[in-house]
Design brief:
The chain is mainly β. About 5% of the residues lie in helices and about 45% in strands. The protein is built from 2 helices and 32 strands. It has a 7-stranded parallel β-sheet, with helices on one face. Strands 1, 14, 15, 20, 25 and 30 form a 6-stranded mixed β-sheet that branches. The chain is globular.
Length: about 280
């Protein structure tokens, strides 16, 4: 297994703790023109968004309490509103994975389009997988952007004052992509890719692994594998396109990019970086 690893050096602990404490919202009120909806269940919120033709545009959703997610995690396909975590924590249990998506992105929010996710803390008690089937392999899917909070940010979307931290030493976000399906794959904790968007005042100490895989269930290699396969991974975002990352703190973590086929060496592209794997 080929591996590219980038270790993130520890940042000052006091700065990390200060950032986490700063996530507690103070005096936060929605504008009178924006309706406020209370969120007490991630499953109910996901279901409501699936039935909302506006994708939550013009609405503020406020998390009312800490939540715990385990097993298959429901996803929000498209989101255009404001999700305010209000300083609450969504705890993700070891071995959890995202529900299947036909979107380009995959995460709690597959795509945030012009919307905002803020004041949210994600606690990870082990490894979170992008999906579960043979070896947690993402195959026959349209996804190419993978993130814990958002698959991708587009159209001026924002993630601000959010934290993704570990409660177990082996906490990680792990994405394995079938080589013969996608020639590009981007992995990050806050989002897989950001297009004309912003990530600001965020904290992370969880590791990231992106892997390209072309092994068939019987252990043989898939002859139809794409020789131009790519994998980009970073702690913040796998791709940063006309976007901004500012005032973020990365306190320890590892970024690993792997593939299992030596024949890919001539065309395979692997990028591992602390903030953004690819930027333009």
């Amino acid at each position: 297994m080929k591996n590219v690893e980038r270790r993130i050096h520890p940042a000052p602990l006091l700065l990390a703790l200060a950032l986490l404490l700063a996530l507690i919202p103070v005096g936060m009120h929605a504008f009178a023109s924006e309706p406020v909806v209370e969120v007490n269940s991630w499953t109910d919120f996901s279901t409501a968004m699936a039935n909302d033709s506006t994708a939550g545009a013009g609405t503020v959703y406020q998390l009312q309490k800490d939540l715990t997610l385990s097993g298959m995690i429901p996803i929000v396909s498209s989101f255009k509103g404001t999700f305010d975590g209000m300083g609450h924590t969504i705890s993700i249990e070891k071995g959890s994975y995202f529900a299947t998506s036909t979107d380009a992105g995959l995460g709690l929010f597959c795509e945030v389009s012009g919307g905002t996710v803020k004041n949210l803390i994600i606690s990870m008690n082990g490894t979170l997988y992008a999906g579960v089937n043979q070896r947690n392999l993402m195959e026959n899917v349209a996804n190419e952007h993978y993130g814990v909070i958002a698959g991708r940010l587009i159209g001026g979307a924002t993630i601000s004052r959010c934290a993704i931290y570990r409660t177990a030493q082996d906490a990680a976000f792990w994405v394995t992509v079938d080589n013969n399906k996608r020639d590009d794959a981007y992995v990050g904790l806050f989002c897989g890719a950001a297009f004309e968007s912003t990530i600001d005042q965020c904290y992370a100490d969880v590791s990231v692994t992106g892997c390209r895989d072309n092994a068939l269930p019987d252990g043989t290699q898939d002859a139809s594998v794409r020789s131009d396969a790519t994998m980009s991974a970073a702690m913040v975002t796998g791709a940063l396109v006309k976007s901004t990352v500012s005032n973020c703190c990365l306190y320890y973590g590892e970024v690993n990019v792997q593939h299992n086929d030596p024949t890919l060496n001539s065309g395979y592209s692997a990028v591992a970086a602390p903030v953004a794997a690819t930027a333009s």
